[in-house]
């Protein structure tokens, strides 16, 4: 990271990177940190390194597969259809069918009050081996969910998820997949804005993840996030 340490955050920018990963910065501090990270590529590497470090703290915890109903509730909350605007809920109780029809026509034509949500999906196809995964990104919540579709998770290695926002752009680590080959990540705005057209890739790494902040092992699967 740059030696320039012009910040009021305790410990300087490197310490701020750790607090950023843990979500300890206030909204204003996080925005200032993200602005700095746009100017300092090394700071982004610090964020990736801290994310990998904190991920290793859960290694001693024995993996437990949650009951299917738990994942069902999580997916329902993350990817449920948008709630109807309030005017559509109250419309049947309006005083006049003609007024309701006119209002509905005006809104439909103008696009006012129509939710403008965009979801992205990716099929991560095998690159080396048989590993395949599916991914979904909800643009409104910023949540990315990855699930194993086929293949096995190696017992003595780690599978690390990467976001590649374009040709020639350094991959950004999104952490390790769990023992079942899945992951749920809440992306901060700085990363979420890179999702359209980006590629997700999974590399095989040493236990604990890449030691360099970049993929070191073979890429097992990859796929592009496409709007649906």
UniProtKB/TrEMBL annotation:
Keywords: Cell membrane, Membrane, Transmembrane, Transmembrane helix. It is found in: Cell membrane; Membrane. Its main location: membrane. Residues 128-219 form the Anti-sigma K factor RskA C-terminal domain. GO terms for cellular component: plasma membrane. One of its GO terms (biological process) is regulation of translation. Coiled coil: none annotated. The chain crosses the membrane at residues 90-114. Residues 203-218 have a biased composition (Low complexity). Residues 201-228 are annotated as: Disordered. GO terms for molecular function: sigma factor antagonist activity. It is a single-pass membrane protein. This is Regulator of SigK. It comes from Citreimonas salinaria. The lineage of its organism: Bacteria, Pseudomonadati, Pseudomonadota, Alphaproteobacteria, Rhodobacterales.
